[in-house]
Amino acid sequence: MSSPILEVRDLCKYFPMGKSGWRGGGQDWLKAVDGVSFDLHPGQTLGLVGESGCGKSTCARTIVGLYPPTSGTIRFKGNDLGSLSPRGWAPYRRKIQMIFQDPFASLDPRQTVGSILTEPMAIHKLGKPRDRRLRSMQLLEAVGLNPRHLYRYPHEFSGGQRQRIGIARALALEPEVIICDEPVSALDVSIQAQVINLLGELQEQFNLAYLFIAHDLAVVRHICQQVAVMYLGRVVEVADRDTLFANPSHPYTRSLLSAVPHVDPEVESVRQRIVLRGDVPSPLDPPSGCTFHPRCPEQDQVQGDRCSVEVPLLQSCGSGDQQRTCHLDT
Amino acid sequence: MALLDVNDLRVRFETHHGTVRAVDGVSFSLDEGETLGLVGESGSGKSVTNLGIMGLVPSPPGVVEAGHVLLEGRDLVQMSDAQLRGVRGNEVSMIFQDPMTSLNPLLTIERQLTEVLELHRNMTRAEARRAAAKGLDEVGIPEPERRLDQYPHELSGGMRQRVMIAMGLLCEPKLLLADEPTTALDVTIQAQILELMKDLQERRGTAIILVTHDLGVVAGMADRVHVMYAGRLVETGPIGPLFKDPRHPYTRGLLQSVPRLTGDPDVALDSIPGQPPDLAALPPGCSFAPRCGFAKPTCELDRPALDLIPSQDSRSSACFETENLLGESDQ
């Protein structure tokens, strides 16, 4: 396999949350991302899935440099980005772009589509104004919009079309990695399928690597080759797509998969769901040991109180490159 | 007699862009203990249909133009506000989509739950509190007594949605209108809430109208499905046959464009081309014709009516080409 284009090692992002203890001596931290590692290869898609509040979006924002990492390394083609100054980041921002979830909030309502698309090129001093306009027309065409719509404003477009504009903007600087933060979850099903297919076509055309963040497992299954499952700031399981969906190994992955409704009444009527108890605990005060243990349906199969005491490490399990953090059968 | 009979319901909104017919002649009926799934994309009129049944269409700009909503023979559309207040929350109740905004942030959970009981059941506050605690317990909220004294912001999203459901069920309604009850929730919490709704329905025989865009949720919950597009019902029928062998091109497109957990993931999804129509400027013929792969020029002239599909049990479709759109079972 080719060398990874993006290597993330032990990435942590903690947010300060006010003081505790005598005279405010102690600092409370919200550990949004707590030791996440993965590799992303050129032309491949890695899915990052989990429920709200598990840290997947914070992870994405830290990788593109919107938040400085608390610790850990982010390497793009071997260069460590985490240690760079904001100015030093600049050339890499071009190569790592982002598509946002909300197509209504992520486009400036007072800019025309043309200026939305040419602004990044102007900032990075690419080409003359005429070349930039020409390129933005090509971009609109590439994402399936009419190049003549360059002078329209975002409000003149529907949600799906706006998301296409967001994709065109991300492509403007010829990136090699695109971080997609829930790019289709705000769209209706029929439009969602259009955008999923478009992302696939663009990936082939430009050899893009995607970090695809989503909570919808069926969408992830269609787009990703590798999937990492997150729970409370940590990756609890990583595997290639087919293994993960056929043979989920971590109890959380299993319950997550079993909770997804199937679009087939016959399957639904006989299917057994693993219904988890309670809610996701607060990341301000995560449970001890394995953070999933208070909700884990398989905890009683582990001897003693290991689950509530010992933090499980990410270890190989099953076949190939499947890894999980769990005390089961160890 | 059916529990609920909706007959030719029409709701229009007067907007700056013109008249929007959000619900354009919707008719259906619902029996006791039955679950009806109302599916469609945003703007198809499914939520407004629910609001129309409850008499909650905001006016202005909304106008309920015509139609009857018969609940056990009594017409809700003709009722005065005072009469409606006796029905809402009592015989018919509603669960809204967003548990973050549909609870009053200034009132304790207790006050929000006891209000319906004091109003409809003439309970004293103390009796109502006991009943409310029992209601919270039934929907699986631990320590209900403590929760009663809390405010909505102290609860998680899943908890708030449980409070909404508990509130909706306190007076043991005959009909529950659930508008995207799990859309704002994570899948594991969604699974809990759906199990809970099913369980409560089995125990009490409540009829449910489940409005959702999530075809998976409908597949697990509903007995019958009604598919809406641009304010009209385009296909109706029992859930099994409709999902297995959809007869309206829109239903077919919708089902084919959903990513699934089974089947070959590397095949590109079939998407429906184009954009949902602008309701203020609908084409004169079939609203779906501009996006339809089976459309003939004649489809753009007249609106197809919702007709029974020949040789199919209690299934209807609003399409001129239904006969030519044969399913697997007929080939």
Main sheet record of chain B: 8 strands, mixed
- Encode the helix/strand succession of chain A as letters: EEEHEEHEHHHEHEHEEHHHHEE
Question: What is the straight-line distance between the termini of chain B?
Answer: 37 Å
What is the multimeric organization of the chains shown?
heterodimer
Number of helices of chain A: 11
Helical amount of chain A: 25-40%
- Radius of gyration of chain B from the CA trace? 21 Å
CATH architecture of the largest domain in chain B: 3-Layer(aba) Sandwich
Low-pLDDT parts of chain B are none
Basic shape of chain B: globular
What is the CA-CA span between the terminal residues of chain A?
30 Å
Largest sheet of chain A: 8 strands, mixed
Biggest sheet strand order of chain A reads 6-7-8-3-9-10-12-11
Number of domains of chain B: 2
Strand order of the largest sheet of chain B: 6-7-8-3-9-10-12-11
CATH superfamily of the largest domain in chain B: P-loop containing nucleotide triphosphate hydrolases
Q: Counting H and I runs of at least 4 residues, what is the number of helices of chain B?
A: 10
Please estimate the helix content of chain B. Answer: 25-40%
Roughly what is the average pLDDT of chain A, rounded to an integer?
89
Q: Could you walk me through the main structural features you see in this protein, from its secondary elements to its overall organization?
A:
The complex is a heterodimer of chains A (330) and B (331). With 330 residues, chain A is an alpha/beta fold. Helix content of chain A is 32%, strand content 23%. In chain A, helix 3 (113-123) packs across helix 4 (129-142). The longest helix of chain A is centred in the middle third of the chain and has 18 residues, at 189-206. Chain A is globular, with a radius of gyration of 21 Å. The relative contact order of chain A is 0.13. Chain B has 331 residues and is of the alpha/beta class. Chain B has 2 domains: 4-213, P-loop containing nucleotide triphosphate hydrolases (Rossmann fold, 3-Layer(aba) Sandwich); 228-330, no CATH class. Helix content of chain B is 30%, strand content 22%. Chain B has 10 helices and 12 strands. In chain B, strands 6-7-8-3-9-10-12-11 form an 8-stranded mixed sheet, sandwiched between helices. Chain B has a 4-stranded antiparallel sheet with strand order 2-1-4-5. In chain B, helix 3 packs across helix 4 (125-138), helix 4 packs across helix 6 (157-169) and helix 6 (157-169) runs parallel beside helix 7 (187-204). The mean pLDDT of chain B is 87. The A-B interface holds A 51-52, 158, 160-161, 188-194, 196-197, 200, 215-219, 221-222, 241, 245, 255-269, 271, 273, 275-276, 279-280 and B 41-42, 156-159, 186-192, 194-195, 213-217, 219-220, 239-240, 243-244, 253-255, 257-262, 265, 268-273, 275-276.
